[in-house]
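Researcher: Go.
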Amino acid sequence: MYNINILYLYLTDIIMKLCLVFLIAMSFIISTSNAYGFGDLYEVKETEFFYELSDGVKLDCSIYKPVADVPANGWPVIIYCHGFGKSKRDVAELARSQAAFGYLTFIYSMRGQGRSKGESHLISRVEMEDLQELVAAIKKRKDASDDNVAITGSSQGGIIPFMASCYGMKVRCIISDLGSPTFASSWIQNGSIRMSLLWSLSYSDNVVRYDDDVQEFRKIILDNDPDDVRDFLEEFLENRDFSKEVINNQNPIMFSNSWKDVYFNSNGIIKTLSSSNKYNKFYFGAIKGHSSDTNLSETEYHNEMISKWIRYWLFSENNGVADTPKYTYSFGGYPIFENSWTYYRFSSNYSPFTNNKKIKFFLWNTKLEQYENYDKDSVLLLNDADENLTMREAINSEFTGNYFNSKFRKQVIIMDSSPLTYNYNVIGIPEITLNLKYTSQVYQINIQIWEVNEFNDVHFVSSINYTNWNNKSDKEIRKEIEGNAVAHTFHKGSRIRLVITNLDTRNDDSELRTNPYVLPVLNRNAGIIYTGGKNGSFIELPILE
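Model: Structure:
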């Protein structure tokens, strides 16, 4: 009977998840269809062709166009950009369906991806210039409205249009999901190389063809030589990050980011808010992303706003989107549903990340205290790694199994606060200040932030990761380290938990599975984190009051 009950619960869980996926998909189709109108649909014709860029590279393209007389000013245009490791075919059905409502829609595979020629430079200025050239060519078409062009995309597909806009491309509007002007820095934040970056460098040739420099990046990460990694960390940012150029953007852009994204965090968007123009709008919450929490009501809201945004800018439709607040943000919190936080949405014309009160929790022994403890103490973080273990072996084992566990031992130090006396609405970038001492050249510290409720249920909130590839001190130093931005309500009665570890694996992450969020250090080392004492180590959380 016990086994039957387990099977019943398992099947029920699968059915619920399938229903959720179906509802999300249907909500997107319905919301976009409603926004574009349910009038007489046009028959649509697809034209496939290769467009030759100025450098001779040919891109695989398709245009979907209504079978009807061209309007006097041409058809309004929507360009769909795909994510990395995908192709135009991943956005083809959406492009076809929208063309039926009276649009000329354009899709293409970025260089080195899909059937396009050339080599991928991994989301760089090269891909940006390709898009700029394509937009210029589309505007010259007699059947296209040159002043009514919208671009939409997610991840790579959201970053490239945003980047191009910051370098002078002019279009009517843009939708940029799951991107950042510091996406490259996000992948290697605080010297810690994300597992998702290595995945992005490891597609087979039939999916992505990389240029020589990008192929070398993967080799350096796998070889794990500190001297080479230090050079890579500097070189990787070149021609990718563009935070200084954000102020140049003149296009209306709707930005959307998702908390707990294992590829790109929201830090770069948050830090450049003051450089954004008056037409930009921002969403931070729980839309479908790179392993981020996904919430049905947030997805429906997001899809509705996207549809209204395009309709407003391309047709000047008075649908209210221009009057919505500039910032929309959702806090995660209990209860847990489908292994995700429940999300609560708020809106404001003022940035929720500015002038927030910051509260400190001081590290002492195995506790988080809201007041300094002047009795100095310390904890030892040991990286018990066999020097013969290679990064390739660790990755091939997915950081689990008898062989890996015999070569690398995960250490966990847990520090809990007392039960909270009221709710804390944390929003922004957490930061930890550590007094520490390492004698090794290379070391890593990972700090996970969890909430433990009154029933002892534990769920992940965010993380702070730091890897020093060139430690030159054998003395106690003080280090301030930024974490991944988040919006989360820690509830009254819950405890805030810090987990300090040498291997940032998370048992509730469906994408990472047994893999760590950032690649670990594989040399044997030990470090002392000093707690307590005057000016002791502490974590600082920004609170929205």
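Model: The longest strand covers residues 144-154.
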